[in-house]
Amino acid sequence: MQNLKNRATREKLFKASWYRAEKGDENDTRAILEKTAKLKMDKAHLMGKSSYAELNLMDQMAKKPENALKLLSQLANPAVAQAKKESDDIQKLIDEQKGGFSLEPWDWNFYAEQVRKAKYDLDENQIKPYFEVSTVLEKGVFFAAEKFYGITFKERKDLPVYHPDVVAYEVFDRDGKSLAIYYLDFYTRDNKNGGAWMSNFVEQSFTTNTKPVIVNVFNYQKPAPGKPSLISYDDVSTMFHEFGHTLHGLFANQKYVTISGTNVPRDFVEFPSQINEFFALEPAVLKNYALHYETKQPMPTALVEKIKKAATFNQGYATTELVSAATLDMAWHSVTSENQFKPTLEFEKDVLQKYGFTLPQVPPRYHSPYFAHIWGGGYSAGYYAYMWSDMLNSAAWDWIKNNGGMTRENGDRFRKYILSVGNSVDLNQAFRDFTGKDPEITPLLKDKGFVK
Ligand SMILES: [Zn+2]
């Protein structure tokens, strides 16, 4: 959509996608999903709960659907207001180009990209020479972890690897003792899944007396032989993100595997990873790793500022489409009696209206008939979890900034209360232990650029 110059083609593509599962043919999902929603409600009733959301949230940090909905509604209004401003910017551009039409959902990405270029003048090719993959890893990701947590890393060329591209490190704790083995698999291959993730080959447990063995997998483009591997800022951010999951696994300190490390509720699991992304732009960290691969010069301040400014670009749109999808999910699974159900499209329309998602140019990221995460993907009444984790990491980072920043003391504190406890304690209490209070929404609204 971002690259299609022909407006009619964009519209055709958008509609083909949007209406894909409601054409009255054998791929129409509406009857099945209405039945699925009802069966989930019946299951909750059998378990003594009023709705599926209530059943599902019992062991999550949010605990009750009301708490998840409260968070979503706190995000909805500012997000929609910001998206409205963004849509005005785009309409202005369309008018300047004498487009002669009103902005529609299929135009958004195409024009947003032009607004981005005009407003931030940020060119990937300017940035990439400063992000060489092993420098980002060792002088950025590892450096931040050494500074904050006191852990160190040593490459182990003697350990077996499953592909020649994979590298292995031994991780040492603050007292110099061996803590874990950490594998990295950077480059894309034909037979490899897309995306980036962390997983444990071996999980920490005192019962089985095992230390963690962890892998981070990425899909960076492998450079030609002899050429440096230069990555985008998004890729840098992903590396810090996945390493945040790794830290959660590394510092696991539990008797049982099932509650150790990253085996935590879904609305908590992205907290350690997302908070680690903040380190990428910490001045002390950035100046250590963002070095031009040829000249070894640090990134010019003007370029750093551009990256920081561009971080809040299009957040109105991105947040609105996510929060509206999460609200739809919560609404479908909060139904308590059969007569509250309506035909799929009507149900969706009413929910979006009720919760203030009234900007037609920004539809929910997933439309009910093909919202696979919540019908078959295990995210039923769980899609809000991304936003919940987001609230936690913004609030915790805010606390760190206001209490001395990247100190070893704060690192130890974060490790003690958040990263080492797995799911062995009440995580709401763990958060309070760390920051002294419940998480608030304001830091997240600030990070997204919705409030000053
Ligand atoms: Zn993640």
TrEMBL record:
Name of the protein in its database record: Peptidase M3A/M3B catalytic domain-containing protein
Signal peptide: none
Pfam families listed in its UniProt record: Peptidase_M3
Cofactor binding: number and manner: Binds 1 zinc ion.
The family this protein is said to belong to: Belongs to the peptidase M3 family.
Cited Gene3D superfamilies: Collagenase (Catalytic Domain), Neurolysin, domain 3
Domain Peptidase M3A/M3B catalytic residue range list: 1-448
InterPro entries associated with the record: M3A_DCP (IPR034005), MetalloPept_cat_dom_sf (IPR024079), Neurolysin/TOP_dom2 (IPR024077), Pept_M3A_M3B (IPR045090), Pept_M3A_M3B_dom (IPR001567)
Keyword list, A-Z: Hydrolase, Metal-binding, Metalloprotease, Protease, Zinc
Cofactor(s) recorded in Swiss-Prot or TrEMBL: Zn(2+)
Statement: the UniProt record of this protein carries the keyword Hydrolase: yes
Metal-binding found in the keyword field: yes
